[in-house]
Amino acid sequence: MQRPRLTPEDWAAAALAALVQGGVYAVAVEPLAAALGATKGSFYWHFRDRGALVDAALALWEARETDGVIADLSTVAEPDDRLRLLLELVLTVQEADSVVRLFRDVDDPRVQAALERVTRRRLAYLVEQLEACGFDPESARTRATLAYSAYLGWWQLRRTAPEAAPAGPAALPHVELLQELLLDTGREP
User: I want to staple 144 with a disulfide (CB 3.0 to 4.6 A). Which of 19, 82, 126, 185 is the partner?
Assistant: First the structure.
């Protein structure tokens, strides 16, 4: 029986799944080849070494969970609606964006670089949306930083005390409050 021809994306997706589940050390060529029904030769056809595979997995994560989300949100006309949808996406889902899991490997230079790029891109996006809502750049940066910190803390809380940070529709009151806090101008109604 002929083995399926694997693409670099197939390898990167398998490596990303291993990375998210077990950390950077779980990205090992032989177990991934076995899981994919491939040989190590298939791996070396696409990648020069394991480090290149880890880089490809991190690039795939960045493309899917940051660039892809931002692209999807670009179809929403109003910035406050984009923020609302973003908050719903990240707080109501059952499974966290793997950024929280990747923080366990922050000492790995590749992971650290990817986390830094993603964090900067996500913060910049939040700042853009808040500026589009009428906040000055300094206020938008402060609010974006607090919102992203709340997001990271939400998922850490979901891991350690899941009853305190519900998923699905039960998280909607949290979404509404966070959006209200983000967009509050400090004026009395």
Answer: 126
What are the residue ranges of CATH 1.10.10.60 in the chain? Answer: 1-75
CA distance 89 to 72: 11
Looking at residue 167, its pLDDT comes to 86
Model confidence band, residue 186 (pLDDT cutoffs 50, 70, 90): low
Integer angstrom CA distances of residue 185 from 126, 130, 145: 16, 11, 16
> Which pLDDT belongs to residue 1?
52
pLDDT band at residue 94 under the 50/70/90 scheme: confident
Q: How far, rounded to the nearest angstrom, does the alpha carbon of residue 105 sit from its chain's CA centroid?
A: 15
Identify whether the C-beta of residue 175 lies closer than 8 Å to the C-beta of residue 91: yes
Residues in Cβ contact with 149 at an 8 Å cutoff, skipping those fewer than 6 apart: none
Distance of CA 11 to the CA centre of its chain: 19
Predicted confidence band of residue 8 (pLDDT cuts 50, 70, 90): very high
Fold of 1-75: Arc Repressor Mutant, subunit A (1.10.10)
- Nearest to residue 87, comparing CAs of 75, 98, 101, 97? 97
